[in-house]
Amino acid sequence: TLRSCRRLAEALRKVGRTAEAEPLLRDTLGRQAAVVGADSPDAARTEGTLGQIALDAGRRDEAEALFRHAL
User: Fold this and answer.
1) Contact at 8 Å (CB) between 60 and 41?
2) Which of 4, 6, 30, 48 is the most exposed place for a label (fewest CB within 10 A)?
């Protein structure tokens, strides 16, 4: 399921495997937008996790945009 994909990506991020987590999250977000809508709580959580990855990578502008949209 989409939640399982997001949870897997979150686990990958937590163990430092962001190179694997980020594309999985981006794919999941795209599918969430198509299935449950871009403004759904699940999509917001996915965007928040993507924002954290961007922030960790020093991509502050991207992180801010993701966090703002997640709100």
Assistant:
1) no
2) 4
* CA–CA gap between residue 2 and residue 15 (Å, rounded): 20
Question: Per-residue pLDDT for the chain (71 aa), expressed as one digit of tens each?
Answer: 898 999 999 999 999 999 999 999 999 999 999 999 988 999 999 999 999 999 999 999 999 999 999 98
Phi then psi for 59, rounded to 5 degrees?
-95, 75
Instruction: Give the SS3 label for residue 13.
Output: helix
Nearest to 6 by CA among 30, 24, 20: 24
CB 31, CB 2: distance < 8 Å: yes
Tell me the chain's radius of gyration from C-alpha atoms.
11
